[in-house]
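Q: Got a minute? One more chain.
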Amino acid sequence: QVQLVESGGGLVQAGDSLRLSCAASGRTFSSYAMGWFRRAPGKEREFVVGVSGSGGTTYADAVKGRFTISRDNAKNTVYLQMNNLKPEDTAVYYCALSRGSSVYGSYDYWGQGTQVTVSS
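A: Always. Here it is, folded:
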């Protein structure tokens, strides 16, 4: 059974940084795309960033230049480094594992989410 467990969320001030982690178990995930999504209050879930099975990355325009995704296949873990956080980044952040290697594919497995709150 595949499980994804996020950690690293919290309450920070605008301009601060946070690093989220997502540990996967139950499956070797090195060949599959991983993504980070977020859901802000009153809004639909949106794509933030993804890393393909080959290591290519895709970022939403809102986070380009501020967020960085990385993966450690030996640890079955993907990270999201978030710098220069803004109040509009406040959301529950979810990691997800795709059924394929492309970040544009379907994501079958989801973590429980971790809250990120950025105060102004």
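A: The CA atoms of residues 38 and 66 lie 15 Å apart.
Q: Perfect, thanks.
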